[in-house]
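Hey,
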Amino acid sequence: MGEGSDRIAFDQRIARVVARPLARTPLTPNAVTGLSIVVGLGAAWLFAQGGTSIHWGAGIFVVAVWMDHLDGELARLTDKASTFGHYFDHVAAMINYVAMFSGAGIGLSDGALGEWAPVCGVAAGLAVATIMTVRMWIETRQGKELTQMTVRFGFEIEDTLYVVGPITWLGLLPPFVVAAGIGAPLFMVFVIREAVRAVRAAPGTEGS
């Protein structure tokens, strides 16, 4: 393995392998990002149908999460990395996460959770999107170093979204959506508070 490979997540390594043959095609990184939105919205639609469709939705959502790495690896291999592509990637991820949680909530509305299911789903999705927006804000203020995620044992924090697959297949989606609907907004408040503190404490921001 190359230098620093221990800091590369497993899914990113897989994306790198898949990106190599794609680099010899006309496919662009931004096109892959756009395709990931289509895949993510398709997963959300399947979640919203409820019933057995959620199992297919979970599998497709896992693919959408993985594609978040594929476009970046393709950009590096083809030397087509750009500021627009970087932020387009973030926006695509936010769209997919909001859509997935909202779709899951809608799909569960006929169950025991009733009308609270969509509320929890939307709350979770918007909270996750807000957290990602705060990270982008910090990045524009203080650089990418502060938002760089640590890889431990081949995983990084955003890889927790892969659990949507197993959780759905094991029939645990309802409690997961409720937990996310409560936990994500609470974590969002914490992230916003810490972000404001970090920016205020940064050199050159005294008195601002």
